[in-house]
Amino acid sequence: MTFTPQPGFHIYGIDLPEGGVDGLGIPTRIGVRGDLAADGTPATGSSTRLLRLTGLATELPVYPDGPVTFTLPVRRTGGHRAEVVVTYGACSANACLKPEVDKAIPLDLR
To answer: Which of 8, 28, 62, 81 sits most deeply, having the most CB atoms within 10 A of its CB?
Structure first.
């Protein structure tokens, strides 16, 4: 799966804890449900960097601006229908877009 935020925007790290750091940041999450099961954890070849927000001591792990590709090993558990479920937040230096939380993307496994 590739996340492609609009130019000048980044997404938060997959290792960001639930609830962010001091309540800031939306951790990137990828999962599956339906007739697929995760057979490992999400991985990416991209590294995060620490972003310090202006006026705050908090540092947040973010990927560089632009696309970030993740892989998730899966196994088929039956049938032909599954969903990829994602949570992410995209921000620039000046603004954040509305986060997507548990967004389901349907898959047809035929």
So the answer is: 28
Taking a C-beta distance cutoff of 8 angstroms, is the pair 16, 74 a contact? no
Token duo for residue 13 = 């790290």
**What length does the chain have?**
110
pTM above 0.85, yes or no: yes
Amino acid found at 89 = G
Q: Which residue has tokens 């992410």?
A: 88
Distance, CA of 110 to CA of 60 (rounded, Å) = 40
Q: Looking up tokens 């099961």, which residue turns up?
A: 37
Q: Tell me phi and psi for residue 24, to 5 degrees.
A: -110, 140
Spatial separation of the C-alpha atoms in residues 68 and 62, rounded to whole Å: 11
Tokens (6 digits) for 20:
């962010």
In angstroms, the CA 28 to CA 24 distance is 13
Local structure of 25: helix, strand or coil: coil
